[in-house]
Structure formats: structure tokens, C-alpha cells
Design goal:
The chain has helices at residues 28-40, 55-67, 92-103, 131-143, 157-166, 185-193, 234-243, 247-257, 269-276, 285-292; strands at residues 7-9, 15-17, 21-22, 45-47, 77-82, 110-113, 150-153, 173-177, 197-201, 261-262. By secondary structure, it is α/β, with parallel strands linked by helices. The termini are far apart. This is NADP-dependent oxidoreductase domain-containing protein.
């Protein structure tokens, strides 16, 4: 793994690079090119999911890079996720095996339940599947060696506590939306208590979300368009000027300083290099605290997952 990027050690001793590449909205030939560029730029952590529909392209790119001797499988940390229709214990093994075929891998380093609400393939809710059932299915995959680590994504604090009560394998990672205006302090406390590493998505505000079109032909996240972007925050800009870095680099570095993994997404080769070039300067604890002081009275959530509204395991029911 790249020596420049700090490595976080999971509770099962698996080593996870603190900076990875998010791949949402990267499909087709572009997705394949982006992965090659990322590996050449020093990325050793790639985050994907069934939902992203790019596992095939990632698998092709990785196979070529392995064959060329650019990188070895054991040097990489690959994460993928089971979506709503794949998380139930009666279908999750097939889901992961299908992901592995597309990725052309024998195992992934981390497999996540993408959201705690199980559905059928048609989208209808499965109310017979609880988060405890989802976790038992993940534990089976871990025991089979199909994944080196297991975790959750978009689960709330009470759902994590419920899993902890019944788990035989601990939760290794919790991935969720986390950024300057949604710092997730309660979630971070729960994860700290249970020795769970956090991965943050949307750390830079996820501007690409506005290109997602819903069934009604309108942007799916239209109602979030007026939420301020942290890249324009005056304190972020001041630190960027002080350290001669971009606002994105300040936000990413501050998040890593909190002990949180970041997976910024970009297809731009220069920004890709900037997003991993975070460790040639030091940001102080006081400066991190200054940024954290800007938590909003009302959470500035960007992603609401409308497909699981009214599901018994909707993780955002209390906020809707």
C-alpha cells in the first residue's frame, strides 16, 4: 500500500488505507480509465457497490493492472456493498459471489450492507428481515472467506447497538454520510465505544448528486440544492490559504485527523492527485475543532434514501 497514506487498522487487524477513491457515478469506459489513473496516482483503496453498476469496469481495470505488474492484489483494499434487494440472509451470499465475478476477485477486503432496509428485487419492502438478520448473513460470508471484513452503511446508532448485542463477528466498519455540516458526533461516539472504524462519504458535498434523476424526471435530490457547500465555508477557505492547499484538501485532511476514512470521488486526474496529497502539511487539533464548531442546529443531510421511507428499518425515520 502507498506509504504516503496513513493506514487504519480494523479490529480484526486488517489494514485499511485512510484515503480511498469513491466510484459512484463512474460507469462505462470512463470508470475503467478512472481506476487506472487512481492506482497510478497512488490510491490503494477503491470503494464501489452493486448500486453503482461499475464492478465490471473496475474488475477489468484491476485485471489489466495485475497482469502488467503495476500492482498486486494484496496491495489493494477493495470495498463493495449489497444493496437493499441483496441484504437479506437468503440472498446475500449470491449477491457477493456475483460481485466477485464482476470484480474478477476471489475476495473483497470489506463487504457492507449498503442500507439496513431489505427489499425485494422489485423494490417492495421486506418487513420480515431485521438488521440482526442482515448481520448474521454477513457473518456467514466472513466465515466463508469471501470477504476479509464486514460492516454496515447508512445504519443509525440504535441499529448498530442492536447488532452489537447479538454479533459473533464485530462490526469492522460503518460507512455513512459525514461532512462539516453533518459531523455525526453521536455516531462517532457509538463507533468509538465499539472499536468500529468510520468511513465518510459526501465529505466534499457530493455535487454530483444533483445529476441523479428520479422517476418523475426531476433531480432526485432537488430539495437539497440550497444546502451550503462546505468548500465555500469561510474557515475552510482561510485554512486553505494558510497552508496553500485547496478547500477540498483541508476538509479531507481534517476528517482523516479525526480518525475517519475518506473516499472522495472525482474523475479529474488532477483533483484525484490533490485528494490523496494530504500529508505534506499538518493541521492542528485546534484547527480541526474550529471546523467542527460549525455544526448546524438542523442536520444538513444530503442523502435521504426515499426508497426505504416507511420501512420498519428506515434509518432516517426520526429525521424525516
Amino acid at each position: 500500500m502507498s506509504s504516503k497514506v496513513p493506514i487504519f487498522t480494523l479490529s480484526n487487524a486488517v489494514r485499511m488505507p485512510s484515503v480511498g477513491l469513491g466510484t459512484w457515478q463512474m460507469t462505462g469506459d470512463e470508470g475503467k480509465t478512472v481506476i487506472r489513473n487512481a492506482i497510478l496516482a497512488g490510491y490503494r483503496h477503491i470503494d464501489t457497490a452493486t448500486l453503482y453498476q461499475n464492478e465490471d469496469q473496475i474488475g477489468e481495470a484491476l485485471a489489466e493492472l495485475f497482469a502488467e505488474g503495476v500492482v498486486k492484489r494484496e496491495d489493494l483494499f477493495i470495498t463493495t456493498k449489497a444493496f437493499c434487494h441483496e441484504v437479506a440472509p437468503d440472498v446475500i451470499e449470491e449477491a457477493l459471489r456475483n460481485s466477485l465475478k464482476r470484480l474478477r476477485l476471489d475476495y473483497v477486503d470489506l463487504y457492507l450492507a449498503h442500507i439496513p432496509a431489505a427489499t425485494r428485487e422489485c423494490g417492495s419492502h421486506r418487513t420480515d428481515v431485521k438488521v440482526e438478520d442482515i448481520w448474521k448473513g454477513l457473518e456467514k460470508l466472513y466465515s466463508l472467506g469471501l470477504t476479509k471484513s464486514i460492516g454496515v452503511s447508512n445504519f443509525n446508532e440504535s441499529q448498530i447497538e442492536r447488532i452489537v448485542k447479538i454479533q459473533k463477528v464485530p462490526i469492522h466498519v460503518s460507512q455513512l454520510e459525514l461532512h462539516l455540516y453533518l459531523p455525526q458526533k453521536a455516531h462517532r461516539e457509538v463507533c468509538k465505544k465499539h472499536n468500529i472504524i468510520i468511513t465518510a462519504y459526501a465529505t466534499l458535498g457530493s455535487p454530483g448528486r444533483m445529476s441523479v434523476i428520479g422517476a418523475d424526471g426531476k433531480p432526485l435530490f432537488e430539495f437539497t440544492k440550497n444546502i451550503p457547500n462546505e468548500l465555500n465555508d469561510k474557515n475552510v477557505k482561510a485554512l486553505a490559504q494558510k497552508y496553500n492547499k485547496t478547500p477540498a484538501q483541508i476538509l479531507l485532511r481534517a476528517t482523516v485527523e479525526m480518525g475517519i476514512v475518506v473516499i472522495p470521488k472525482t474523475t479529474n486526474p488532477e483533483r484525484m492527485k490533490e485528494n490523496i496529497n494530504l500529508f505534506d502539511f499538518s493541521i492542528s487539533k485546534a484547527e480541526v475543532n474550529l471546523l467542527e464548531a460549525h455544526e448546524r442546529s438542523k442536520p444538513e443531510r444530503l442523502f435521504w434514501w426515499p426508497n426505504v421511507a416507511d420501512h420498519p428499518e428506515d434509518p432516517f425515520a426520526a429525521e424525516r
